């Protein structure tokens, strides 16, 4: 019998305030709700001691709202629990990259644009009040759950302007258990 709880936090931002100078999206909210729905079934509930699913969309997906939801997970999660974090929305990497984090394979200075992010008007590279990859990583690492699945569906707005440009999903698994991220051993 499974002896852990499942915590799912999904975030989807389609609509940014008009004065933010950030492009709106079409499917981020539907994607976030779809992921949440997959973990809101009776089968999933029957397989876990507790299932908690929270979805923040559009105006609820502010920087403080997202931080608050993650801080809740920091307080309630135990080592044996499972956390699934999903973000779908705009993002960008500043023009002077700091490099790539070897463990996460995500640029440390990547910025996820939340509902209350805004651009100073000289392009998306000057967006303020964003959730940085570094801050997100620190919050996720503060959650005790040994098993975390993090799915980030984010790309710079300019990627949508280029026809046939490939947009990548970035998936990061964060674990306090080194065996989860270690390469398989040969027999």
Task: Outline the structure in words.
- The chain has 187 residues and is an alpha/beta fold.
- The chain has one domain: Rossmann fold.
- The chain is built from 5 helices and 7 strands, in the order βααβαβββαββα.
- The longest helix is centred in the middle third of the chain and has 14 residues.
Brief descriptors of the model:
187 residues; alpha/beta; Rossmann fold; 7-stranded mixed sheet; 5 helices; 7 strands; 23% helix; disordered C terminus
Shape: globular
What are the segments in which pLDDT stays under 50 over at least 5 consecutive residues? 96-105, 164-169, 178-187
In N-to-C order, the SSE pattern is EHHEHEEEHEEH
**Helix content class:** 10-25%
Oligomer: single chain
CATH C-level class is Alpha Beta
Largest sheet: 7 strands, mixed
CATH architecture: 3-Layer(aba) Sandwich
Brief synopsis:
This protein is of the alpha/beta class and 187 residues long. The chain has helices at 28-38, 42-46, 63-76, 133-141, 178-181; strands at residues 6-12, 51-57, 82-92, 111-112, 131-132, 147-155, 170-175.
SSE arrangement:
Blueprint: E1 6-12, H1 28-38, H2 42-46, E2 51-57, H3 63-76, E3 82-92, E4 111-112, E5 131-132, H4 133-141, E6 147-155, E7 170-175, H5 178-181
Parallel strand pairs: 1-2, 1-3, 3-6
Antiparallel strand pairs: 3-4, 4-5, 6-7
């Amino acid at each position: 019998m499974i002896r852990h709880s499942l915590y799912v936090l999904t975030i989807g931002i389609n609509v940014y305030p008009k004065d933010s100078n950030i492009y709106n999206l079409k499917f981020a909210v539907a994607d976030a709700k779809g992921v949440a729905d997959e973990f809101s079934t009776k089968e999933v509930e029957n397989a876990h001691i507790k299932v908690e699913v929270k979805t923040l969309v559009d105006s609820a997906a502010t920087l403080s709202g997202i931080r608050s939801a993650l801080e809740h997970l920091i307080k309630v999660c135990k080592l044996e629990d499972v956390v699934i974090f999903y973000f779908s929305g705009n993002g960008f990497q500043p023009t002077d990259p700091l490099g790539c984090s070897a463990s996460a394979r995500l640029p440390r200075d990547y910025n996820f644009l939340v509902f209350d992010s805004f651009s100073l008007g000289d392009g998306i590279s000057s967006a303020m009040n964003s959730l940085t990859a570094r801050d997100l990583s620190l919050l996720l690492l503060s959650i005790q759950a040994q098993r975390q699945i993090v799915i980030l569906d984010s790309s710079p707005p300019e990627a949508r302007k280029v026809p046939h440009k490939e947009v990548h999903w970035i998936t990061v698994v964060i674990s306090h258990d080194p065996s989860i991220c270690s390469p398989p051993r040969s027999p």
